[in-house]
Amino acid sequence: MAMAALRREGRRFLPLMSSNSINAARSSIVSEDLAPQGARAISTQVVRNRMKSVKNIQKITKAMKMVAASKLRAIQVRAENSRGLWQPFTALLGDTPSVDVKKNVIVTISSDKGLCGGINSTSVKVSKSLYKWTSGPDKETKYVILGEKAKAQLVRDSKKDIEISITELQKNPLNYTQVSVLADDILKNVEYDALRIVFNKFHSVVSFMPTLATVLSPEVVEREAEAGGKLGDLDNYEIEGGETKGEILQNLAEFQFSCVLFNAVLENACSEQGARMSAMDSSSRNAGEMLDRLTLTYNRTRQASITTELIEIISGASALEG
Amino acid sequence: MFRQAPRLLARATSIMRARSFSTDLPAAPTSDSSFVEAWKKVIPNIDAPKTPLSFMQPRPPTPPSIPGKLTVNFVLPYQSELAAKEVDMVIIPATTGQMGVLPGHVATIAELKPGILSVHEGNDVTKYFVSSGFAFIHANSIADVVAVEAVPIDRIDPALVQKGLADFTQKLSTASTDLEKAEAQIGVDVHSALNSALTG
């Protein structure tokens, strides 16, 4: 009540104290809910704009998180169902990541879209380390890249080593036919002794493990089988069908590559959605915290401006009283 | 981000409780230690990536006497049709003809042609039409059949089979390039196999 009376008095004094030009300047930065004559010295407009944009960002990231969660649910089922696909091959041929061959091809699987946390950087880091690990005198290592993000990172320093790069893999829902055509393409155009597929295996919504799956060419399989070790039992297997053992092994290697690639692509897509979900979740939480801080700043600024105005009015009034 | 991990995990487990991951990781994860050590020597800063071996149950060794049942794993790209199922016999359509697999079968790698796969368990026989793939029979009486596409026989429509056979036979006669001839031949093979599967 007293405040309202003081404010009215202030309004009567303000036109006397300030000149027209100052009034005009004040009106230009005045906020909507104040009358033009009651212009306040400190403006809350800047803080208010920031709050609005942060709130919008929070809404957007929350929506992206929901979208990623629903996509994850759909693709997780398919990824889990495809997990049985590579196990027979590993049971038969074993797993020999430390095989020593001349021509290595590193197949890096990544996503096309960003905002998915650190999974693409992890894949690229592992691929680059693998390149370093498999390099040596008389050996050559090449890249085959699936996905826009890995291409962007690898093209910077390994441009001459990239054989094929494929993008927009997930334009249509992933299916085995598409992946087998892709695998056929890669096998036709790239000479290889060992194919090393680098992807993120989906473990749970918060954990993704960089994984390396190795597929050997039929010649290397024969060589390793003769040398003994993990593949030594291969000779014990009878071969049914086909003209020669070599032909069967060729078909086997191609089939294995397409199966392993299918599982790898599904797992990576799963990991991408999971990583995007947690990235967007933490982003919206950060936006919420930022909004809280901004609200406090806004209230402080608003209260300070009211106090300043009161002081001006009261000091003006007391000056007139004498 | 890591502060939120317990909360995210709790939320994740509540969302995903229906899907458990116990089938994926074995009880004692084995890893290729020689690979990990060789990796660490060259690249000490980055952890070695995991390999498929650490995600698989190790297979049992060959038993001294022939076991009574055959363990069958029948996998497709989008589903594991049979996972570690104990059966009496499996008849697989290898390229050299129908092959019967009993427990104690010699270790074999067989390429499959389009045909019927039948699983015999006691008096039940389940028949699937398989498009193609591979079958591995291991010495420890475990059979892995990996197929690209498989359907139970009762889901096949005979009318469409006849129509497809007629279509592809016609395409084969009018094919000009080798590629077209090969595609038409494959179509004819699959459809005639489907035909004999339905009638036989």
Automatic annotation (TrEMBL), chain A:
What molecular function does GO assign, one term? proton-transporting ATP synthase activity, rotational mechanism
- What keywords would UniProt list here? ATP synthesis, CF(1), Hydrogen ion transport, Ion transport, Membrane, Transport
Matching InterPro entries: ATP_synth_F1_ATPase_gsu, ATP_synth_F1_gsu, ATP_synth_F1_gsu_CS
Cell compartment(s), UniProt: Membrane
Domain of life of the native organism? Eukaryota
Q: What is this protein called?
A: F-ATPase gamma subunit
Q: Which organism is it from?
A: Nelumbo nucifera (Sacred lotus)
NCBIfam families noted in UniProt: ATPsyn_F1gamma
PROSITE patterns given in the database record: ATPASE_GAMMA
**HAMAP family (UniProt xref):** ATP_synth_gamma_bact (MF_00815)
Family to which this protein belongs: Belongs to the ATPase gamma chain family.
Automatic annotation (TrEMBL), chain B:
> Where is it mostly found?
mitochondrion
CDD domains, per database record:
F1-ATPase_delta
Keyword terms, alphabetized = ATP synthesis, CF(1), Hydrogen ion transport, Ion transport, Membrane, Mitochondrion, Mitochondrion inner membrane, Transit peptide, Transport
Q: What GO cellular component is one of the record's annotations?
A: proton-transporting ATP synthase complex
Molecular function terms, GO-annotated: proton-transporting ATP synthase activity, rotational mechanism
Q: Which InterPro entries match?
A: ATP_synth_F1_dsu/esu (IPR001469), ATP_synth_F1_dsu/esu_N (IPR020546), ATPsynth_dsu/esu_N (IPR036771)
Q: Which residues form the ATP synthase F1 complex delta/epsilon subunit N-terminal domain?
A: 71-142
Could you tell me which PANTHER family the record lists for this protein?
ATP SYNTHASE DELTA/EPSILON CHAIN (PTHR13822), ATP SYNTHASE SUBUNIT DELTA, MITOCHONDRIAL (PTHR13822:SF7)
HAMAP family named in the record:
ATP_synth_epsil_bac
| Summary of subunit composition and partner proteins | F-type ATPases have 2 components, CF(1) - the catalytic core - and CF(0) - the membrane proton channel. CF(1) has five subunits: alpha(3), beta(3), gamma(1), delta(1), epsilon(1). CF(0) has three main subunits: a, b and c.
Q: What does this protein do?
A: Mitochondrial membrane ATP synthase (F(1)F(0) ATP synthase or Complex V) produces ATP from ADP in the presence of a proton gradient across the membrane which is generated by electron transport complexes of the respiratory chain. F-type ATPases consist of two structural domains, F(1) - containing the extramembraneous catalytic core, and F(0) - containing the membrane proton channel, linked together by a central stalk and a peripheral stalk. During catalysis, ATP turnover in the catalytic domain of F(1) is coupled via a rotary mechanism of the central stalk subunits to proton translocation.
Q: What is this protein called?
A: ATP synthase subunit delta', mitochondrial
